[in-house]
Specification:
This protein has about 550 residues and is α+β, with helices and mostly antiparallel strands. The chain contains 16 helices and 19 strands.
Length: about 550
Amino acid sequence: MRQHHSVFKRGKQTRLPKTEDEKASPLHVDNVRPMNVGLLRGRMNETTRARFDETWRRTFDVAKLRPSSSRRVSRLQAKHAEELELNGIAQRASGPGRSVNVPFTVVEEKEGALRQRFILWTHEANDAIEADGYEAQVPLKHVSTYLDAVHAECGSTRDLRCGFYGVEVPRGARDAFRFQDDAGDWWELTRLPMGHTCAPELMHTLTSTIAGHPDFVKTVHAVPAAVTVHTWVDNVRYAGSRKDVLEASRKVDELAARSKVTWKDADTRTASTRYEFIGVDWDHQSGKVGISARLSKKLARDLVEVRKGAMSASGLETLGGRLLHASAIVGVFVGEFYFALKFLRRLTNALNRGEKAVDQTVRLSGSVQRLLDGWVRAVLEKRRMPVAARVPSLTVFVDASLEGWGGVLVDVATNAIEVLGSRWSRKEKGLHINELEALAFELCVSAVPDKYAGGTVTVVVDNTTVQGVARKGACLRSQTLNDAVVNGLTRLRHMNISLSVRWVKSAGNPADLPSRVPLSAISDKNMADMALAVRQFLTGDMGLVV
């Protein structure tokens, strides 16, 4: 199976089951009702519905698929196929269908116990859909963008039970979802499988529609503006006042009943000030967030393995994903562990090139062992972090040219403007423009006055590389760029400042002029032009991409 390995994307470890796992761990299935997709589709706004219809067509319009002569060795036990049938997820078929699919199970840990998850890899359909130009649209944001919701009075969560199995495969498309068990019998799925390239997008769109997310549904069906709603594939979280959260939760439960959606029993049914969501422990009373108990436990086990001096390649890949996620939650700057990131990136590149197998043991050098040990301990020791209230206090425009750097600081409350800038030294002029932009970021952030401590700073750049590094907290391509941005982020952290980073077109960046000319050469007319550019940006009167 072709798989793209990336330490920046993978945070959960799964593996093919060993013989002892197949005997001891159960298959994760449940006889959930098929949801009323037609009812939910009717609640979608025009843009969402058009995209959903196109993705649905790509998934189930199987007329173009032709039976393949190739045959793959099945890994699915006959008892598991029968268990799928018992729960209404599969039914017996007469023989091969429109495409050859590969059924298998993977082992994962859930609440301290192992279980097997069924996957149907629809590789022929996936290849055809991706060749047709399909790219999934599942808008899952960086975890840091969700954290300010902790300042709401409370929250409430929902999680679909076996969410993918709640989507019924149309009868006319089921022969494209056929597979064989190890006894040679043929089966076809009646529910949407994990392993189809379109499945995550379909699931996320349906969940967001059920939740009343304003980006997905018609205005009349959206949750009140006072409620923040976040969806994560088949998970939902509301945050707001107790009254509003309870009302939103009541309505989503009513819709779930009408559309035959099945929630997990363990969901937070009432408004709560303490709960876990997307690996985060939310404490609304204190305004703090931390890593969830499950994530803490996994990292503690990983630390034991790191100290042994050797881990599997897949274990290291997963550790990297967990560390990146946890660091974003508790405010550990990953750029401080630059060489550990370089090691993990080289490892994932080797996996992608086929130079290492996922189960291959990787021995850790003393330096890598110390770096990974220190990173895990930094995350576990911090555990909880206060989230600064998102009250805008200062906007900082940043720019660099080959001549120098410039900055424009704007006090949001008073609209007072301060212009900064200077020329590069001879040594600095030899750096790449991206590195110069990063140095400008550091210099402008370092100039933020102490009176803004505890507030929010919005840094506006016209360089997407610096924007991305500031959001991730690290850069593996250039240590100069990495160190400059990390120094700026560290300064803001010491001031307890909450940072957001936005992008502006170069032509609309007021910091462009002071990066090119000495401050003494800036005229009153230049100042007026810069003030106009600031107003246009802050009021949205210019082309802005966030």
